[in-house]
Amino acid sequence: MALSKNRLIGRNAIMLLLSEDPNEQLQFLQQNKWRGCLGKVGSMEANKVVASIETAAKKNGIIQSDVYRESHALYHAIMEALHGVTRGQVQLGSVLRTVGLSFAVLRGNPYDHDQEGDWIAVALYGTIGAPVKGSEHETIGLGINHI
């Protein structure tokens, strides 16, 4: 049950998100049986961040919206990534913080054996800070969950 070194899902999600040419990176991952998508979201409300990522994942066929365990796995990966972005307190507008984030969602099997099944990773990168231009700083978060 070893992780395959060239198929680390978190690393690949971050590489996709930060890539100079994300479309080329996404095509490479898709050739290796991975499914992924990219997007952007900005908000003072965490629920809007979650909704934006879930919508992109469903629209791009990363998860099946009618299969609960897939939506559930994605939700937990998003929340884990948001914990990283918000330093453990998933609060935004209620404490006068706003985010401007790019995101990558990646699905695939990071293990050597197909029987291990798919996992999902959500990578977030952008800014967080007071809702005043120039009062933000960089942030990053990663969430990984099994499907």
Automatic annotation (TrEMBL):
InterPro entries: Regulatory_HutP, Regulatory_HutP_bacillales, Regulatory_HutP_sf. Homohexamer. Keywords: Activator, Histidine metabolism, RNA-binding, Transcription, Transcription regulation. NCBIfam families: PRK03065.1 (NF002838). Antiterminator that binds to cis-acting regulatory sequences on the mRNA in the presence of histidine, thereby suppressing transcription termination and activating the hut operon for histidine utilization. The keyword RNA-binding applies. Belongs to the HutP family. This is Hut operon positive regulatory protein. The keyword Transcription regulation applies. Pfam families: HutP. The lineage of its organism: Bacteria, Bacillati, Bacillota, Bacilli, Bacillales. The gene is hutP. It comes from the Bacteria. SUPFAM superfamilies: Hut operon positive regulatory protein HutP (SSF111064).
